[in-house]
Amino acid sequence: MGKNNSMSTVFSHIVQKRLSQENENVATEALNYILNSSEAARKGMMRLLGGVAKMPELRFRTQQNEGNSRPDMQGCDDDGKPRVFVENKFWAGLTENQPVSYLRVLAAYAQPTILLVVGPEARKETLWREISERLCDEKIGTKQQTVIGIFRTVNTSIGPILALTSWKSLLDALESEVSDDKSARSDLVQLQALCEAADSEAYLPISSEESSNQRTPALILQLSSIWESAVGMAVTQGILNLKGTTRQAAAER
Q1: Is residue 234 located within the same domain as residue 117?
Q2: Are residues 175 and 238 in the same domain?
């Protein structure tokens, strides 16, 4: 969607002005609407997923409970069984269920199944690192495969396939199929603008409510303690050398 780069829309303006804490939920609902209102857009999604694994025709829905999990979006087959979970991220951290709990839920259904994580272009590397660490912690083995349009794809030892792509790659895949669908093109422009705004405004100044919230200074002290511990560990292990530097401040001062 290169020709629409940096385009602001009324939709993205309102979301950022009034609902910036709901970026992920709003983007998920917008994506779900586009996939269910445009056969061409859904074809683009199926083409992207089809590069990962052969899938039956899917219908998409949002915020459906699966046991103790509630994935952002599900792609279900004609029998209503989940074959794909889509988890949409901007800059919020991974939840407790991401990605391991979702993979375990999908493992109970007919294979192949896919957990697709969508995130900002600039966060792909760090997001994949976080995901990989959680898989390692749970001793879930992986075997990497290469898929066009997908940043990382692995077959997991418990069955489901885990894939990570960016919002740009996903929306480009949809746009490639909707050239004759004026309404879907317009909807995609709106969603693209929201994604760009969420990326560019990821690091907002502290609000007046946050500055008066007594949890904020406690969090700052906790983060400072973690930082100092990490530096100390890095020095001990020889990863970091502080020779020639001068300590300027500490949390306890």
Answers
A1: no
A2: no
Two tokens, residue 99: 């990605």
HEC states along the chain? CHHHCCCCCHHHHHHHHHCHHHHHHHHHHHHHHHHHHCHHHHHHHHHHHHCCCCCCCCEEEECCCECCECCCEEEECCCCCEEEEEEECCCCCCCCCCCHHHHHHHCCCCCCCEEEEEECHHHHHHHHHHHHHHHHHCCCCEEEECCCCCCEEEEECCCCEEEEEEHHHHHHHHHCCCCCCHHHHHHHHHHHHHHHHHHHCCCCCCCHHHHHCCHHHHHHHHHHHHHHHHHHHHHHCCCCCCCCCCCCCCCCC
Q: What CA–CA distance (Å, rounded) separates 213 from 30?
A: 32
Reported as a single tens digit per residue, the pLDDT across 162-208 is: 999 999 999 999 999 999 999 999 999 999 988 888 776 554 555 56
The torsion region of residue 198 among left (phi > 0), alpha (psi -120 to 50) and beta comes to: alpha
135 is in which domain, residue-wise? 2-200
Q: 160 and 239, same structural domain?
A: no
Do 89 and 213 sit in the same domain of this protein? no
Give the tens place of pLDDT for each residue, 221-246: 777 778 778 887 887 888 888 777 76
- Last residue in a domain, options 162, 181, 200: 200
Same domain flag for 252 and 171: no
